[in-house]
Known about the structure:
This protein is of the alpha+beta class. 48% of the residues lie in helices and 12% in strands. α9 crosses α13 (259-276) and α10 packs across α13.
Amino acid sequence: MASDREKVRLIFGLKIKQLRNELGLSTYDLADQTGLSPSYLNEIEKGKKYPKAEKVFALAKALNSTYDALVSLQVSKSLEPVVDLLNSNKLNELPLELFGIEPSYFLEVMASAPAKLSAFINTLIEIGRNYDLSVEQFYFSVLRTYQAMHNNYFEELEQQADKFLVDFPPPDSADRYVTWLTGVLKEGYGCTVEYYDETTQPGLLSLRSVYLPEKNQFLLNRSLSVEQQVFTLAREVGYHRLELTIRPLESSVLTARSFDEVLHNFQASYFARALLIPRQRLHYELDLLLQQPRWDNDRMLSLLARYTATPEMFLLRVTNLLAGQFGLNDLFFIRVNQLTNGRFTIAKELHLSKLHTPHGIARDEHYCRRQVSVTILNELRQLQEAGQWDGKPVCRAQRISFATNGTTYFVFSIARSSPPTSDNSSINIGFPISETLLGRLPFINDPSMPTVPVGETCERCPITDCTVRAAPPVVLARQQRTKDIQSTIEQLRSAL
């Protein structure tokens, strides 16, 4: 967050402010005694300026201190938590600047209650450790907040993609996109592309790609589908076009060395989607879709088929435009993976609405088997095991009502397999149903669409007649026991 020189300035400024407050002096009082301007003193206290020696002597005299005490990095006990936090790597892991928070302002606020705020931050860190929250997971959580702040729509990246398509017009045929993007990388950025497989690079089969900056060489997994190859190449173009040199070298962020890596990976990926699914064309097609009186699974799949895109890539792009151009920013995006052992996990999630149900849970609980995000995966797995799957994505939609709080959503889902793994994934977009939404999306009232009562996880679900429950409602039972005890205590108190 701050360099060593910045830390010295910040510590010096905090000491000046603390001594001034202890003496009951205003900034103007200290200015009169030292001959320094109030604005300059304010810059010093914020850690933006460091005075020359003669000015330090003047400050020391006015504050009943000494030159050595002021320039020393030793601080009073009340400021020790601030300095300890500043010298640790914990604040370096907080990309405060991304949210418009200057480090000096953060420390200025912290200095007013250093012990309490330091304890609060360390408590958050401890919670993360207890739930095995890695640095990468923390960075991705910050990224999701950043996306939500901007409704997951970034005009600057949209314009960059528009300009790129003018500079490098795409081919008329989608089956030539791989050749087109490979040529752009080589001719435009001197980056060569080579394919690998189980014979050439067996240790990289779980990855989709690897970039070797020393050689300016891009290695691409040959087992990827055409859609995956196109997106992976387009993202690599995004890194070069946007000049994002701080970046992960592998397709999946294995170990994030900084938040910039995670942010730049997102920006390159956003650019790739905007490049391959131009906003003008998709906007027109979505406008027609949203006006339909009935939901049509085949119509959604037909729209997907017009692009060389995976369901995840396509629906992420849909969220950009729904929120950024249609004003439908109360939505969630969730990717659910069905592992080969039958387990379901939420691999990605983004909530632009203030409602965070459904969402990923760190504890080892079982996600509701009634939700379309799961039922569509079971349907796909059954087709695969029976040899009846034609390799095309499956689309389904439903209205869901959470049994715990009555919140209702419209959710649509697209599922397919996810090479190079053998896992299946469902990509889901949901909207909390309101009168406003019903007016915007008439197909939500489609009587042929099922409305299903659901829970969040089996362990928290109050539905008693569920036939697909994967675990008993132990968390719900524990919560109910607590309420019963509290109710009994209240009755005993009122009887006195």
